[in-house]
Structure formats: C-alpha cells, structure tokens
Design a protein that fits this description.
alpha/beta, FAD/NAD(P)-binding domain, Enolase-like, domain 1, five-stranded parallel β-sheet, 22 strands, 24% strand, globular
C-alpha cells in the first residue's frame, strides 16, 4: 500500500469514527440476552444502543431474536393451539362436552401464532423506548478499534456507524444443517420452517429427538400427521434423568410418536414433493423412509459469521463460539458476549441472566449466573422439566444420595385436570439432605420446577420442602410428596 493510499484509508476511518454516534454501551443482537443486557445497562445509567437485523414480513424491525421469532414464543403458541385441538377431539367428551363437526383451520392457527410473535416484537420495541435505548435496525459488526472503544457498523436500509466504550455481543445461534441436506424450508425444514408448514403433512419425519424435534413433532402429530422421529443416540433424552426419560418415552409412544433410537442417517434426497431418508437402524439393518416434510433438529451453531471478529482480533474458539471467561469477558478489553454465542446451555433464560450480569459488571457490580440452578424444560405434553444433577450423574461421580418420587396419579388436582401422567423426583445428598436435583415429567412441569430452583439457590434440604405447607388441591403437592418420599414418608402414595 502506498503512503498516499494508506493516508487516504486512515483519513476515511478517522472521518467515520468522528461521525459515529456515541454511546457508553452498544449491544449487537436483540434476542433475550441482548435486549435484556441493553435494558439493564440503561437502568444503571448508561447511554445504550442495540443493533438487530431481524425483520418481519413487511421488512420492519422484529427484535427478540430466534426465541421470539422462530423459537420459544411461536412454538409455545402452536403447542397451545394444537393441544386445544387435541383436547377438543379426544378429551372434552370425558368432561361432558360434546364437539360435533370438529375441523382444523390451520391458517387461523398460524395467524394467531404470528400475532403472538408480533406482540412480543412490539413489546421489546416499547421497552427500548421506555428505557431510552437507541435501536438500530440492521446487521451490526465491528468496524474497528477507536480511541476509548470500538466502532460498530450498521448495515441495512439505513447504514450507520456507532462508537462505544463497551460492546456486548449477543448474536445468538443458527440451526445446524445436516451434511448433504441443506434447509430449503419447503421440504427440509429447520425450526423456522417447522413453524410455518402451510398444510398438515401426512408423513412427517424428524431427525433428532431433542427439545425442538419433540416439540414440533408433538404439534404436527396432534394436528393429524404421522410422525416418525429418528434419533442417533441409543438412549432417549440422554441428558435427562434416566427414570424420567423412560417414563416420557413410554407416554410419547402411547400418544402415537414413532421414536426410533440408534439410527445412523445416510443419504437424504429431496424429490418434487417428498423427502427420502436412508438410515441404518439400531439392529444394523438398512432402512428407507419417505416423508412429505422433514424437520432436522440436530442442534445449533453460534452466529458469528459477519461479526467482524477478525477486524478487531476477537478470539473465537474451535467451534466458532466467542471465547469468554467465567464473567463473559472476551479476549478484548470491554468487549463481552452472552447467550447462545458463548459456552454453556443454549437457553433463552440463561442468556437473560448473563445479559443482566454483564450489564452489572460493566457498572462495577458483581453480577452472577449460577449454571448449576438453570432449569431446563421441554414443552411437550406431558412437560419435562429439571434442575440440578441427574441420578446417572450422581452415580458416575460417586456421590451418595437419596431419591424420592411421587406420581401425579396420586395427586387430586391432576385427577381433576384429567392429566395424571408422570411424576416428580427428588435427589438429595445422603448425609446433608441438600437437594441435588429435581426432575419432573407431568402437567405444568415448567411452572413447578421454579420451586426447586429457589430451594437449590438457598441450598435447601428435601426436608425443607417436605415441611412447607402447599395449597390443596394443587399440582405442587406432588413436589412436597416427592420430598417426603426421600425419607420414605410420602402421605398419599
């Protein structure tokens, strides 16, 4: 590069930096980690900007990330709608409610789902305005280092340049593609395509029996699809407590989900109107299945492409995640990263907690995220929720423990609801009785697990829960009874 060219480049960079809009904190990404980090930083008195490129069907801003747009929120909307449909077709008669001529209006169901998403998008935009956060609609990326901070370029309909002392990366994750089977969102679907199928497929294939696969498989099974789930692992839900996973597997199969474990996926060929999947089953036999639609849910990868990491020397690990320490600090001073784009579970609520913690650390406070008490939930019916360690983990670590279980079959509220499937399970230290893990499969497990999270945060014992008065009749009584069962003194079973 000639001196003249170098001088011109330096001058252009200097000009862009001098014209940049100044902020204390710039957050790249407005998913759960990003928008919460922005709000908390604004509450702490910082001038804050948030950059996000998600767009709605009209091209307008749609903050909320994967969670709000094609993940947590729309999937729960469809799960609720499809559960209503199934209850109307198969459960209402038991309650003395006869439904004649039941039909499915899938278009209205999808419209409602989209409406729920928009309400959440608009809610986040309102929160930005309320907290005086500047929102920029476009793709944010590092443009370079600047005196006292960094410049962030915003690419989009209205390009801009921002400058901040602190930058929080919250760019989330993308669905992982299977080699040889790229998403076309017509026949081969990611989570996004699975939420927007225009007509109920007769034959639906799902590769991956994880959270997304089971939830989406459940939605379309309830609406009339024949659903086959192909899972590579030899066990069902290997991260879940084994006893709970076995109970869930039994219930899902009874509902009509065909779950095939230990499958080795081979060639996937998309035709004009269907998809053919070759695989080897658990017995080593070659199999072939033809589906009208195929959902691939084999995990997610960090969204760091186009972030401009090389521009500023930001370190990524071998898998493409932003490398951070325990405090979410990156390799660069005053650059932080949270959520799916860093190590740890890819959960919206984990991202939110990290977002709050980082904002507080920027302010010199002592933000904290306890990975040991992050709850996990699968929003199927029955729901599956857990926190802490599983029985197999405790065995592998050589930890002496006690276990107590209580079935919803013996719970009065569950009987009244008409859903007595599943159980609550407590695991406690054999000596101190401290709660080490709580695992639930059954109705409203996602709500019940919070009591266990609170208890574990305060290092409570199973006896503490057993001694607390729970309302009667309530599903939470099953939690109390499982705690009592740790000491073999359950009262109703």
């Amino acid at each position: 590069m000639s001196n003249a060219t170098s001088s011109a480049t330096s001058s252009a960079t200097s000009s862009a930096t001098s014209n940049a809009k100044q902020f204390d904190v710039v957050v790249i990404g407005a998913g759960p980690g990003g928008y919460i980090a922005a709000i908390r930083a604004a509450q702490l008195g910082f001038s804050v900007a948030c950059v996000d490129e998600w767009a709605n069907a009209q091209g307008g801003p749609a903050p909320g990330g994967t969670c709000t747009n094609v993940g947590c929120i729309p999937s729960k909307a469809l799960l609720q709608s499809s559960e209503h449909f199934e209850h109307a077709g198969h459960g209402f008669a038991e309650h003395g409610i006869d439904v004649a001529g039941l039909t499915l209006n899938l278009g209205q169901m999808l419209k409602r789902k989209d409406g729920v998403v928009k309400q959440n998008n608009d809610g986040i935009l309102y929160l930005f305005k309320k907290n005086k956060i500047a929102f920029f609609h476009g793709r944010g990326a590092f443009a370079g280092a600047a005196e006292g901070g960094y410049t962030i370029g915003v690419a989009g309909a209205k390009p801009d340049t921002l400058k901040a002392k602190h930058v929080v990366i919250a760019t989330g994750s993308n669905a992982r593609e299977l080699a040889g089977a790229p998403f076309d969102e017509k026949l081969i679907l990611s989570n996004a395509g699975a939420l927007a199928i225009g007509a109920v497929p007769k034959r639906l294939g799902v590769i991956g029996a994880g959270v997304i696969g089971l939830e989406m498989g459940s939605v379309w099974r309830r609406l009339g699809a024949e659903v086959t789930v192909l899972e590579g692992l030899p066990v069902f839900l290997g991260a879940v407590d084994e006893q709970i996973a076995k109970e869930a597997h039994k219930l899902f199969v009874k509902q009509g989900l065909a779950i095939k474990l230990g499958c080795k996926i081979g060639a996937i060929k998309a035709g004009a109107a269907d998809v053919t999947v070759d695989y080897v089953d658990a017995d080593g036999a070659a199999q072939q299945a033809v589906f009208d639609k195929l959902i691939i849910s084999i995990g997610r990868v960090p969204n760091t492409t186009g972030l401009g990491a090389d521009t500023v020397g930001l370190k990524l690990d071998e898998r493409g995640f932003v490398a951070v320490d325990d405090d979410c600090k990156t390799s660069l001073p005053n650059v932080w990263a949270v959520g799916d784009v860093v190590r740890g579970p890819m959960l919206a609520h984990k991202a939110e907690e990290e977002g709050v913690a980082v904002a507080e650390r920027i302010a010199g406070q002592h933000g904290h995220t306890n990975f040991n008490t992050i709850p996990w939930v699968i929003y199927t019916s029955p729901e599956i929720a857990w926190v802490g360690q599983t029985e197999q983990q405790l065995k592998a670590a050589g930890v002496a423990y006690k276990a107590g279980t209580f079935p919803f079959l013996a719970n009065g509220r569950a009987r009244a609801l008409g859903d007595t499937s599943g159980m609550v399970k407590f695991l406690a230290d054999a000596t101190s009785d401290e709660i080490l893990g709580v695992h639930i499969v059954g109705p409203m497990a996602s709500e019940l697990i919070s009591e266990a999270v609170v208890a574990m945060e305060f290092r409570a014992s199973s006896e503490d829960i057993a001694r607390i008065c729970h309302a009667h009749p309530s599903l939470s009584e099953a939690t109390k009874e499982a705690a009592l069962a740790v000491d073999k003194r359950a009262l109703n079973f």
